[in-house]
Amino acid sequence: MTRPIGFIGVGTMGGPMTRNLLQRHFPVTVFDLNREAVEEVREYGAEAAASCADCASRADVVITMLPSSPHVEEAVLGAEGALAGMKPGSVLIDMSTIDPLVTRRVNEAVTARGFRMLDAPVSGGSIGARDATLTIMVGGPEDLFEACKPIFEALGRKVIHCGDVGMGEVVKVVNNLIAGVSMAVVAEAFNIGVQAGADPRKMYEVISQSSGQCWSLDRCLPYAGVVPEAPVNNDFAPGFMVDLMRKDLGLAMSAAQGVRAPALLASVAHELFGAASNLGFGRRDMSAVQKAVEALTGD
Ligand code: NAD
Questions:
Q1: pLDDT the model gives residue 239
Q2: Is the pTM of this model over 0.90?
Q3: Residue 230 CA to ligand 1 centre (angstroms)
Q4: Does 214 score more than 90 pLDDT?
Q5: Per-residue pLDDT tens for 40-71?
Q6: Helix (H, G, I), strand (E, B) or coil at 139
Q7: Mean predicted confidence (pLDDT) in 10-14
């Protein structure tokens, strides 16, 4: 069943995801504060709405793909938010990476109005969004998860039900803690090797086949001309922005605090991504964390 979809937030991820839904014959109406982003998806057949509420009023399923918790609260619960326009029987799916506590708060407001909600953050980056190969981790009622599966299958390759509302976010935040720390350590390790005279091509050849191999190395190695698809070869065009990774490491730290668990590596990586942001790389790919490592290196 191709139910009409309202898609709020058509940026790096939401844009290509909208395109994939249109390709699978879902009618999609979009809203984004950035008009250029809206124009891009209109070219692929999306309708444009005037506000989040207007977007929701034209859909059975409202999807949000927004930067962080305050954006989701504003776009859903704000005066012109999606909740103000949702029709009886409509469903909200938040696919942004946000604080699981905010997810539960939004869910309370949504269910208080008689609607239902899933959280469904994603992994796989802009390439996964483009190729519909995302991993999607879903929290919320199982029957609603099953009913929405055709939508998820239009966007990703692995769709996993993780538990109650908010549990998709918990799993996502934990995943990104691993991705952020491993990105930072790839930058740190390669910097040491290069400073000590090693050729980054040789290091990659060895490490990609050794125990140091990881996703951040294979996709985002911050040395030009080694990994062809790596953002460094395109002036660190994102990809996944430094500021978004910094946000996610902050989310991991507050999740840890909530359960009295340590987040030692999260806090070091958080500082390093913060430094990269302060150096002007906040909106560049997360692999630009290498610039912070470089700035801390002596002659
Ligand atoms: P982005 O900044 O490229 O896109 C977000 C869009 O939301 C922008 O176009 C912005 O104009 C719009 N927006 C912000 N507030 C709005 C509002 N109130 N109403 C309507 N539109 C609004 O970010 P992105 O990279 O697409 O990331 C979106 C989410 O996906 C984030 O939570 C991020 O952590 C997560 N994510 C991103 C990646 C990635 O590789 N980029 C990967 C996995 C998960």
A1: 87
A2: yes
A3: 21
A4: yes
A5: 999 999 999 999 999 999 999 999 999 999 99
A6: strand
A7: 96
Counting ligand 1 atoms within 8 A of each CB, the residue from 83, 229, 244 with the most, and so the one to mutate, is 244
Query: What single DSSP character describes residue 280?
Result: I
Q: Is 158 a catalytic residue?
A: no
Q: Which of 172, 202, 247, 291 is catalytic?
A: 172
Centre of ligand 1 to C-alpha 108, Å, is 23
Q: Whose CA is nearest to atom 34 of ligand 1?
A: 97
Cβ contacts of 120 within 8 Å, gap of 6 or more:
93, 94, 95, 136, 137, 138, 139, 148, 152, 168
pLDDT tens digits along 21-30? 999 999 999 9
Q: How far apart are CA 156 and CA 133, in angstroms?
A: 4
How many other CB atoms are found less than 10 A from the CB of residue 267? Answer: 15
pLDDT digits (tens, 9 = 90+) for 160-192: 999 999 999 999 999 999 999 999 999 999 999
What local confidence, expressed as pLDDT, does residue 2 receive? 79
Residue 1 above 80 pLDDT? no
Pairing of strands 91-94, 61-64: parallel
Q: Hey, whose CA ends up nearest to atom 1 of ligand 1?
A: 11
What is the number of helices (H) and of strands (E) in the chain?
Answer: 13, 9
Query: What's the gap in Å between 97 CA and the centre of ligand 1?
Result: 9
**Crossing angle of helices 264-276 and 167-195, rounded to 10°:** 70
- Kindly list the protein residues whose Cβ atom lies closer than 6 A to any atom of ligand 1: 8-9, 11-14, 31-34, 37, 52, 65-68, 71, 74-75, 96-97, 122-123, 125-126, 239-240, 244
Domains and CATH numbers, the chain: 5-164 (3.40.50.720), 170-296 (1.10.1040.10)
Closest C-alpha residue for ligand 1 atom 20: 32
CA distance 262 to 146: 35
Nearest alpha carbon to residue 292 among 175, 174, 185 = 185
